[in-house]
Amino acid sequence: MTLNRISGLVVAVIGLVLLFWIIPRHTETVDYAWLRPATLPIITAVVALISSIVHIIFPSGTAELDVKLALRAGLFFVISLLALLLMHFLGFLVGAPFLVMVLMLLVGERRPLWLIAGIVLIPLAMWSTIVLLLGRPLP
Question: Considering the entire predicted model, what is its pTM?
Fold first, then answer.
């Protein structure tokens, strides 16, 4: 089995987990909206699932495993999990800027205006949009 097919299989499994476990358990059920909260996540999961199945059947191109790049991606994943844990205990307004700061510094961003925008303005805009405008809670 080629790396292309393995990557398609991994995405297919993720799509199935999203469809049958994560989306049903972590989205609200409402009767008053024309667009249900689970609609767009379900569409996205179905598109990912169908695309991955097509990729398994008709793999194209070549895939190479770069261990250094995979370890770096794993580091970003672990940092994101730690930030989610931080958000769980201290809230979005503390955890999100911390996550953005660490990730921006890891990718080499050092320009002060970009750091301020990423660390302060973007999480604040996300929080104000979701909490104040949409009335939805964040961790």
Answer: 0.63
